[in-house]
Amino acid sequence: MQDAQCLIIGAGPAGLSAAIYTARAGMRTLVLGSDPKIAGDYDIDNYFGFEDTISGRDLMARGRLQAQRFGAEIRQEKVLGVHHGDNGRFHVKTDQGEYDACAVILATGAARNRPKIKGLADYEGKGVSYCVSCDGFFHRGKPVMVAGEGLFAANQALELLAYTPDVRICTLGKPSAIPPEYGERLARAGIEVIEAAVESLEGDPGLTAVRLADGRRIEISGLFIAMGEASSTDFAYTLGVARSGIFLETDRDMKTNIEGVFAAGDCTGGFLQIAVAVGEGALAGRSAIAWLKSSCPGGGKR
Ligand code: FAD
C-alpha cells in the first residue's frame, strides 16, 4: 500500500486547484482521476485572466502542469472506494492499487444519475442501498443483487461476499463493462452477471424480489446501486459525510462533517462553474494543510 499526506479524488478544476495549494505547501499530494469532461474542445470565455477564448483542453493541461510543478503526482486511476483506516487515516482503493492518506479531498464533480427503476425511491432504506459497507451487514446470509455494469459494481459485489455468498449483479439492460480479470473473480465466487433490465421491484413494506425483463423473478433482500463510476455521493455514504441530495455538505472552508475529509467543486452543488470549483479547491487545499499540520501525527507522513 502506498501513502500520501493529502489524497485528492478528481483531476478537474477543483482537484487540481487544491493540489496546487497542498503541494506548494510541501504536502505529499496525490491526485487520482481522469481528464474531466471540460478537458475537450469546449470554448471557455468566462474564466478570469484569459482575454481570448481558451479551450477546456488547454486550460486543464495548464492546471495539471502547474500542480505538477509544485510536486503533485497525478495518476489516471478510478477510485472504487474510500474507507476509514487506522489511526484516523483513510484507505483508498482504486482500479490499480491501494493508498493510505491522512487527508482526503473529494473533487469528483457532480454525481451521476440514479438508475430509472420504477419505485426505487420507495424502497430506499427498505432494501435499496447505495453503500455496501454501511448496509451489507443487514443482509447477512441473504440473497442480494448489485445494480451496475462496470468495475464499481464488480467491486461492490465482491465486497458483499463478506456478508453473504448469495450475490448477483444486474447490469440493468446495459452490456457488461466488467474487466476480464474481475469477471474471472466473479465467476470463481459464483456471482452471476445478468444483462437484463429490471422491470419492477416487489415487497411490502421492504424489498423482497426483483422482476427482470427476461421474465425471471429473483428473490432478494437487498439491492445495492453501483452504476458507472463511484461518485462523491458513494464516498460520502461510506465515510459518513453529510449530504443534501446528491451534493456534499461543507462549511465555508470546504470542511465536511468528517474530520480530515474536505470537498470542493461541482460535487458540493451551487454555481457549477470553473471559477467556483477553482476557488473551492483553494479553500479545501488550505483547510487540508491546516488539518495535516495540526491533527495528523507527523503531519500525516508515514
Ligand atoms: P469535474 O470537472 O467534473 O472533474 C471531476 C474529476 O473527478 C475528473 O477528473 C474525474 O475523472 C474525477 N472522478 C470522478 N469520479 C472519479 C472516481 N471514481 N475516481 C477517480 N476520479 C474520479 N464552466 C465554466 O465556468 N465555463 C464554461 O464555459 C463551462 N462550459 C462547460 C461545458 C461543458 C460541456 C461542461 C460539461 C461543463 C462546463 N462548465 C463550464 C462547468 C465546469 O466544467 C464545471 O463546473 C467544472 O469542471 C467543475 O469542476 P470539478 O473539478 O468540480 O469537477
UniProtKB/TrEMBL annotation:
InterPro entries: FAD/NAD-bd_sf (IPR036188), FAD/NAD-binding_dom (IPR023753), Ferredoxin-NADP_redctase_2 (IPR050097). Its EC number is 1.8.1.9. Residues 5-281 form the FAD/NAD(P)-binding domain. One of its GO terms (molecular function) is thioredoxin-disulfide reductase (NADPH) activity. Keywords: Flavoprotein, Oxidoreductase. Pfam families: Pyr_redox_2. This is Thioredoxin reductase. It comes from Fundidesulfovibrio magnetotacticus. The gene is trxB_2.
